[in-house]
Design brief:
Elements lengths: L4 E2 L5 E2 L2 E6 L5 H7 L5 H7 L1 E5 L13 E5 L2 E3 H13 L2 E5 H6 L1 H4 L8 H5 L10 E5 L9 E3 L6 H13 L11 H6 L24 H4 L16 H10 L4 H9 L6 H6 L1
Parallel strand pairs: 3-4, 3-5, 5-7, 7-9
Antiparallel strand pairs: 1-2, 6-8
Helix pairs in contact: 1-7
Bound molecules: iron/sulfur cluster (SF4) (2 copies).
């Protein structure tokens, strides 16, 4: 399968790509630039039409691939992602904010009370607020790059899959398998909370390799048994409330956790 598409005249052209930021810190867009030695190769395969981090030009009308960073937190963002879905043949979401609502999602509880807690006179713009949600709560997405922030090489891998096609499947297992393959000792042995028990694998247990427990930034694994993981944490002396609070950091809006309550 070629990375090229055909224009109206039958000529092969590179896929037209747009990169859009919603509610986010733009850290994942910045991470893309950290691909450094590969960045020019990547740019050589695409026709980069719009990159919100780098330009204040208006977004073009036509494109083939939409890369979305950030959570949906207002009606304008909701309209934007619907438009991106209508016009792009491939939609890639990057970062925890876009995948799970991430850090913006932490504000979901009591969201509509927050403006009056912050402002004496609530600005009109707050009338457009939506409770923070991941992009796939609004539109179907085709590809995901997880974590906060993303790994630039993980981004390139997923972009290559979107451009060329691939039968590589997404990891749905939890992080512990990767961690054990690295032969790392488990944090629970010292009574330290680690969310690798329930977090989607795929980063190679990077934080544990660096001596830090997993904070769950890749989102709750579809294979996770949360009740069993919580019980295991309690057996190692962890307060279950601490486990639940830590898990909500990157999964505040996950319906699977709402069912747990
Ligand atoms: S996932 Fe993390 S680094 Fe990426 S935009 Fe959100 S807060 Fe920033
Ligand atoms: S709980 Fe954390 S430290 Fe323990 S095996 Fe799983 S990922 Fe590794």
């Amino acid at each position: 399968m070629s990375n090229s598409v055909f224009n109206g005249g039958g000529e092969r052209v590179a896929p037209r790509v747009v990169v859009v930021g919603l509610a986010s810190c733009f850290g994942c867009q910045l991470q893309v630039t950290n691909a450094e030695q590969y960045l020019l190769d990547v740019l050589g395969q695409i026709d980069l039409r719009y990159w919100q981090l780098a330009s204040d030009d208006p977004m073009p009308e036509e494109f083939d691939v939409a890369i979305i960073e950030g959570a949906v937190t207002n009606e304008e963002a909701e309209r934007t992602v619907r438009l991106l879905r209508e016009r792009a043949s491939k939609v890639i979401v990057i970062g925890a904010c876009a995948n799970t609502a991430g850090i913006p999602g932490m504000a979901a509880e009591g969201f509509f009370q927050r403006p009056s807690q912050v402002y004496d006179r609530v600005p009109k713009a707050c009338g457009n607020m939506l409770s923070p949600r991941p992009v796939d709560a609004v539109i179907p997405v085709d590809y995901r790059v997880r974590a906060c922030p993303i790994d630039p090489y993980d981004f390139i891998d997923v972009l290559q899959r979107a451009l060329y096609g691939s039968n590589k499947s997404y990891a749905s297992a939890t992080m512990c398998g990767e961690c054990k393959r690295n032969e790392s000792s488990c944090f629970y042995a010292s009574g330290t909370l680690c969310l690798g028990l329930v977090t989607t694998a795929g980063c190679g247990a990077k934080c544990v390799n660096l001596g830090r427990p997993c904070n769950g930034c890749r989102g709750l694994s579809a294979d996770a048994n949360v009740a069993s993981a919580r019980a295991a944490a309690v057996r190692f002396g962890i307060d279950p409330t601490r486990f639940d609070d830590a898990l909500r950091l990157f999964n505040q809006t996950n319906p699977a956790l709402a069912e747990e309550d």
